[in-house]
Amino acid sequence: MTSYLQVDKLTKSFGDLVLFEEITFGIAQGQKIGLIAKNGSGKTTLLNILAGKEDYDSGSVVFRNDLRVGYLEQTPHYPAGLTVLQACFYSPNETVRLIADYEQALASGDQSRLDELLLRMDSLKAWDYEQRAKQILGQLKIHHFDQKVETLSGGQLKRVALANVLITEPELIILDEPTNHLDLEMTEWLEGYLSRANISILMVTHDRYFLDRVCSEIIEIDRKQLYQYKGNYSYYLEKRQERIDAQNADIDRASNLLRKELDWMRRQPQARGTKAKYRIDAFYELEKRAKQQHEQGKVNLDVKASYIGSKIFEAEHVSKRFGDLKIVEDFNYIFARYEKMGIVGNNGTGKSTFIKMLVGELEPDSGRFDVGETVRFGYYSQEGLQFDERMKVIDVVQDIAEYIDLGDGRKLGVSQFLNYFLFTPEKQHSYVHKLSGGEKRRLYLCTVLMRNPNFLVLDEPTNDLDIVTLNVLEEYLRGFKGCVIVVSHDRYFMDKVVDHLLVFHGNAEIQDFPGNYTQYRLWKEMQTEQERKKSAAAPASNDSAAKKSPRPEKEQKKKLSFKERKEFESLDAEIPQLEEEKARLEVEMSSGTLSNDQLLAKSERIAALIAEIDEKTMRWLELSEWA
Fold first, then answer.
1. Where residue 293 falls among pLDDT bands split at 50, 70, 90?
2. Quick one: which of 423, 491, 410 has its CA closest to 452?
3. Spatial distance between the Cα atoms of 291 and 438, rounded to a whole number of angstroms
4. Is 217 left (phi over 0), alpha (psi -120 to 50) or beta?
5. Within 13 Å of residue 543, how many CA atoms lie on the same side as its CB?
6. What three-state secondary structure class fits 67?
7. What's the angle, vertex CA 387, arms to CA 439 and CA 390, rounded to 5?
8. Do 30-59+66-236 and 313-520 agree at the fold level?
């Protein structure tokens, strides 16, 4: 495979803080790599170095000559005055600039300019390029081409920047949190686009389904070092645990040896200056190894939820609109104790507006939310990340409380609480402006949970949090002795946390679905497939067909036939076998012993297996309705 990028012995530090030290890796043609690390470990810094936006201490970064590289920043910037269209086509590529000029002339109705541009479009064969560009803009819901970039929200600007990167068709794409601010429909489209595209990718994302389905390799920065895994996210989890277990065993051995050496050091003072110096040096090396942490720091979220009564909230005939845009209309709902609800839907359908009405930040046009007296909201909002940048981290928390109530008479000091959230003593006494974006999000989460709420309302909590923090937050929410509402585009997070969904379809259409997101997607695909089959099987319109009414629901078949029962049992056995074969192939592909032809063949087999598993799972779900 052709090498696109080679990084050798790269080191980067800020003062005394070393982010990574002498890390080495490469990216070749066709490789799709995910980068994982805790917040503050240097993920974005590394991407900025590769993009030439930041310096490094030592090492080398070498790209192939004339390589087309696209970079999606976590927080994109464009020169003021550009329109959305100009930003989408902001590129030195001649064809891309020509398409931008053509679209501009088309919008303005400049016929003389159009005639000239049509000839140039023909000569450069730009029509296919333009069609692909329009598809990308449409999928990312970018339609207002004349709007100035300085008037866009952060989410809108991120989508424009993503469109700009994809339209320019780079050979290597570097992506920093590409799914932030994308709704579920956009995320799934982008997932499919990047999976199929013949491009190389280096990507940072917290979306684990996205990571698992797009990337075939994972690199992790842990304690300044880099580890590589030749497999997707699922494979990485397995092999990372094996690495940690091996490290822990090594630390345990070092601890045992240290105890023996310590005894020798105490009993042999006369040997310290003579021929036992090698053993004294070995003692200090053992001491260093034995003091290593057994595992990475974990966020401990064992915080008490205050008592919550049986009445939570009731939505009574709630309606809200903005001009012609209807958010909710005559909406009624009774929220149950300990309920964990997910809210999903495309951007602009009213999800955030709904929860702002619930917590009292917005008034409905009519109707009301009747909230129980014992309810104490903990509201994590998209706009809530507002700290005095000149304050120290520990002071931010101490301004809220001097201690945290853990229940059963147990209390926790502020410093200990912050330590649970991976803020070391040094970090606690750092200023807020020195924190990374993800660390600020973690601090914000800390300030919400420390108030002992019994009803958590979390609006996009996964943006900018690292995967380690997300894992523990998920476990905390699953065991939380209170109520939870989560608005999120993170499918993995939703699947682990919620027990049912409110799906906002837009125009005040709200669906209550009894299951998690993956179950909803399977149900939706099954409904679509059934509708397609009905349409295909519908007889030609005639008088007798028109008079024939559909069979009532109660008359439809409720039991499986013998043949369907055998099919159902067969699928029960086949699906695990297919998944086992897929897992085995992924391990073989990650062994590093296969030729390019073997890798290609196994990759094609895995793609076929995924399609077959999806098809059989859909059929199993259909039959299970009647089993």
1. low
2. 410
3. 28
4. beta
5. 0
6. coil
7. 95
8. yes
Contact present, 75 and 26 (Cβ < 8 Å): no
pLDDT greater at residue 265 or residue 488: 488
Whole-angstrom CA distances from 47 to 38, 53, 233, 588 are 15, 9, 20, 30
* Joined tokens for residue 603: 């990759």
Task: Tell whether domain 30-59+66-236 is in CATH 3.40.50.300.
Answer: yes
| Dihedrals phi, psi of 254, to nearest 5 degrees | -65, -40
Sign of CA dihedral 263, 264, 270, 272: negative
What the block records as the tokens of 555 is: 């008359």
Pair of tokens at residue 107: 């919008």
Q: pLDDT (tens digit, 9 = 90+) per residue, 243-278?
A: 887 877 766 676 676 666 666 556 655 544 554 555
For the record, the structure tokens of 149 come out as 């970039």
Q: Which residue has the higher pLDDT, 66 or 297?
A: 66
Q: Which CATH architecture has domain 313-520?
A: 3-Layer(aba) Sandwich (3.40)
Strands 340-345 and 500-506: parallel
Identity of residue 63: F
% the chain with pLDDT above 90: 32
Structure tokens at 549: 């009414």
CA distances from 416 to 304, 398, 408, 434 (A): 15, 12, 18, 21
Task: Kindly report the pTM of this predicted structure.
Answer: 0.70
Report whether 200 contacts 29 (CB < 8 A): yes
Instruction: Name the residue among 156, 150, 194 with its Cα closest to residue 174.
Output: 194
Sequence ranges of the domains in the chain: 30-59+66-236, 238-290, 313-520, 556-624
The backbone torsions φ and ψ at residue 65, rounded to the nearest 5 degrees and listed phi first, read -60, 140
64 alpha-carbon distance from chain centroid: 30
Give the per-residue pLDDT at 619.
77
Over residues 568-603, the pLDDT tens digits come to: 778 877 887 887 888 788 777 666 677 767 766 777
Helix or strand (DSSP H, E) at 513: strand 509-513
DSSP H or E run through 13: strand 3-14
Tokens of 523: 């149900």
pLDDT at 9: 96
**Spatial distance between the Cα atoms of 364 and 355, rounded to a whole number of angstroms:** 11
